[in-house]
Amino acid sequence: MSTIEGWFGRAFGKELNPMYYLGALTVYLFYIVLVSGIYVFVLYESSIFGAWSSLEYMSNELRWSAGIMRSLHRYASDAAIITIFAHMFREFMRDRFRGVRWYSWFTGIPVLWMTALLGISGYWLVWDTMAQYIAIASSEMMDWLPIFTEPMARNFLTSEDMNDRFFTLIAFIHVIGIPIFLVFGVWIHLFRISRSTINPPRGLAIGTLLALVVLSIVYPAVSHEQANLDTIPASVNLDWFYLNIFPLADSWSMGAIWALVWGVSVFLMILPWFPIKKQPPVAVVFPEECNGCGQCEDDCPYSAIEMVKREDDSPYDEVAVVQADHCVSCGICAGSCPSSTPFRKMDPLVTGIDMPDDSIHALRNDTNTVLENLSEDTRMIVYGCAHAANLDQYNNSGTAVITLPCTGMLPASFIDYSLRRGNVDGVFITGCVDNNCHFRHGNNWLDERIDHERKPALRSRVDRNRVHIFRAETSDQKKLGGALDEFRSYLEGYKPDTVEKEETKEVENHD
């Protein structure tokens, strides 16, 4: 998966890599579908004789206004299917659908089927020979289910069986009914996600819109011949994004088709539990060390932390509470806790909120151990992420390596701590690339702490020239090696001025 993302990164740049915004692109495409659909519906005539004619009028007589909007509506709908499946595939390949993350995957499947139904109902409204084929095949599929007293297929036997109320009903389903359920479906899908990204970067949004407009001009969407229930369509050009199931009706039984539809749906929905993912222990709150600042709640990417009123005799009003069924064990909350500082003298180091298997106390011990083992003239410590480029090969007598579940777990104070111990010349931060954190926001939060834009921030006294950030995915292994060598060469020639050294010494003596 990283290789594919790397291809798109080289083509679009990491800032506008569409693979990082597949969910947001889907929502954006829904916006385009909504706006273009409303535009087309204003000129659309929902009647048996006016449906096809009104769309032909838009495509031929109003090509540069309504015609383009009709094509834009069609191609944006197709693109939404592509981004949905690409989003699902990416989450599956990166193992972001099991464990606690089952909820987003599970609730995403109904969104997929509602999108499919929305597209199919849209093709009915064209009322050309393809719509006729879809209507008959759909009614035969529905008649197989024991839910109607009268067969639906009877409505499509002859032209006299049709009336304008059919188009009013389909228009209501397509324009109002399904979209309402789709909006709620997307809301439920994102319910557990904090600060969900629903808008792609401006450059990517503009580029997507321009590409769809160009496609609409070069290959405008057109209708087949007008539907005629007194004849059988000889051939139709299906939209395989939405109508891929219908050709099976020519050779399969309706029972087999429904078995396929329900089988695929059930398989996708139970996939997060086959096999069950072993979940690391969730975050633990230590009330005696929690000052109720709420930073962990604000930083949690999955709304797993809630601040509640304290009932003890603490001077603080609130305390953090972890919702275990939401926690993904990323450790970002530990990195955001102001008590997670290695400068505290207590042993063991207990923080307001921490991870049982990857505690801040263990991180301080690991930092001390790896720093003591450095022996080269130029030394640096590297903090990285277990879900990004592998760091094991860079661990040597001149480079100390510590891998975290997420770099968002690293308190900024550890950078200060490493530099002030005197056995390291620089701190190198790596991990997931921007906008592609395995836990959504961890790398962003750490960057903001270092840049004094987020609490707990890196102290101003730290020499920022001795801190370097280079994000690297697994496909960026060679680039990471080059960045480490370049930073080492920089440190070899970098000499802090005497005043700065004296100020640092005074601060250390004061502490």
Helix and strand run: HHHHHHHHHEHEEHEHEEHEHEHH
CATH architecture of the largest domain: Up-down Bundle
Low-confidence stretches: 498-511
**For the terminal residues, how far apart are their CA atoms?**
48 Å
Number of helices: 16
- What's the gyration radius in Å? 29 Å
Helix content: 40-55%
| Main beta sheet strand tally, sense and closure | 4 strands, parallel
Overall shape: elongated
Count the E strands.
8
Provide mean pLDDT, rounded: 91
> What is the strand content?
5-15%
Strand order of the largest sheet: 6-5-7-8
Number of domains: 2
At CATH level 3, the topology of the largest domain is Cytochrome Bc1 Complex, Chain C
Structural class: alpha/beta
CATH class identity of the largest domain: Mainly Alpha
CATH H-tier superfamily of the largest domain? Cytochrome Bc1 Complex, Chain C
Q: How does this model look, in words?
A:
The chain is α/β, with parallel strands linked by helices and about 500 residues long. The chain folds into two domains: about 1-225 and about 235-275, Cytochrome Bc1 Complex, Chain C, CATH 1.20.810; about 285-510, no CATH class. About 50% of the residues lie in helices and about 5% in strands. The protein contains 16 helices and eight strands. It has helices at about 1-10, 20-45, 50-60, 65-95, 100-125, 130-145, 165-190, 200-220, 255-270, 295-300, 330-335, 360-370, 415-420, 440-450, 475-495, 500-510; strands at about 285, 305-310, 320, 355, 380-385, 400-405, 425-430, 465-470. The strands form three sheets. Strands 6-5-7-8 form a four-stranded parallel β-sheet, sandwiched between helices. Strand 7, helix 14 (about 440-450) and strand 8 (about 465-470) form a beta-alpha-beta unit. Helix 5 (about 100-125) packs antiparallel against helix 9. The longest helix is centred in the N-terminal third of the chain and has 31 residues, at about 65-95. The protein starts with a helix and ends with a helix.
